[in-house]
Amino acid sequence: MTEPSSTTASPTSAASGAVPTIRLENIHKVYDLGEIQVHALRGVSMQMQAGEFVAVMGSSGSGKSTLMNILGCLDKPSRGQYFLDGKDVSVLTKSELAKIRSQKIGFVFQQFNLLSRTSALENVELPTIYAGVPEAERERRAKAALERVGLADRMGHFPSQLSGGQQQRVAIARALVNNPSLLLADEPTGNLDSRTSIEIMEILQNLNSEQGLTVVIVTHEPDIAHFAKRVLEFRDGKIKKDFTVQHRSFASEILPTLPSIQDEDNLEESVGQTPPAGPNGSSKQ
After folding, report:
1. Does residue 204 contact residue 188 with C-beta atoms inside 8 Å?
2. Residue, of 18 and 250, whose pLDDT is higher
3. For the domain bounded by 49-75+91-258, which CATH number is listed?
4. Contacts of residue 173, Cβ cutoff 8 Å, sequence gap at least 6
5. Residue pLDDT, tens place only, 223-243
6. Where are the domains of the chain?
């Protein structure tokens, strides 16, 4: 593990000479709360190249969520510059930032944020409506996105008819529907069981390795961060550690070693049906 320099860069950025997908220069974010000022970010500088998979970690109040809001063009820095694909987006207006979000960035949230009375297909179509995509193309894109996350047979289902993992897959499909170059996921496994969490990480790893999508996730779980290629650890609004993951975890290798949900259900049923033990420790018949 290495401590960051004044501008932390991806391991390949210097060698490739390519324009970074993300470049932050001395980013500060200060929130004015009446007479109190909260310094959420304190001079953050770093780079991410296209095709990276980065996990952002840190305790509550460390600045990681504020960083994601700025990366996603949901908020602007108090000072400093944010370059997205070489363009300084820190000086753009709200409407210009909304256009950037629509064209370049996909979002995945811990709470899924699906419309309850809308089918999976219609939920995925929503970003294309805001982007002004023609109706026929909207449906084509939404179907393709759901197929990419393994939900081709669940397009007509409502969120209440889907498991938590399936709902998160719909949320990922929605984030992909406008073909973004950057995917931001805020605690994408926070509400999921262990197996489903790894299934979601498999999708994100495949999108990164097979399609070259740049992925940034926020997580407080070290084992989830181990699926990324690089980790940024935040503390007190600053990057305290920036390192390449050694002995990275691969979801496709771990999943076959885990029991299926059906196996776990069968085990729980068999345990529940075990006859009570008699006084001598033998089962009562």
Report:
1. yes
2. 250
3. 3.40.50.300
4. 120, 124, 142, 145, 146, 148, 149, 151
5. 999 999 999 999 999 999 999
6. 49-75+91-258
